[in-house]
Design brief:
single chain, mainly alpha, 86% helix
Length: 146
């Protein structure tokens, strides 16, 4: 969890210094993307730990609170320093990108399940062929053909 928080903090500090130097937000798009990615990873990790029943609730809460504060600051930057409607467009873009990532994750998981199913069928086929060959060998040995 600390690695994701550190990555988000680093990306946000670059964004903040970029803007304070009088540059456009569009110039630090990669850092904004890194910030959002780190935020999502942190939320996923917190949800996994919550589901397992492990981890410190206070630590998770404080980390997510720091991210929320920085996101609120980013929102203000986009509203006051960006073009009109930039924040709303950014929110919409994030939602669509999140849906796409979830769909890709589902498809990757489904593909992995299909591969495991085919591996299972292959192993089963190999076992059946082995035992059929073994049975044929015993029958041949028993009937005296070998």
């Amino acid at each position: 969890m600390l690695a994701e928080l550190a990555a988000a903090n680093a990306a946000f500090s670059v964004i903040k210094s970029f803007v304070s130097n009088g540059k456009e937000l569009t110039g630090c798009a990669k850092q904004i993307s890194d910030f959002v990615f780190s935020k999502e990873q942190l939320e996923k990790k917190a949800n996994k730990q919550k589901a397992k029943g492990g981890g410190s609730d206070l630590e998770e809460f404080m980390a997510l609170e720091q991210i929320r504060e920085k996101e609120e600051e980013l929102k203000k930057m986009m509203i006051y320093l960006g073009r009109p409607g930039l924040w709303q467009d950014w929110q919409q873009f994030q939602a669509e990108a999140r849906k796409t990532r979830r769909y890709q994750e589902k498809m990757a998981q489904k593909r992995q399940e299909e591969i495991m199913e085919y591996v299972g069928y292959s192993i089963g086929f190999i076992i059946i062929v082995f035992f059929a060959g073994l049975a044929a060998w015993f029958v041949a040995k028993w009937t005296g053909r070998l």
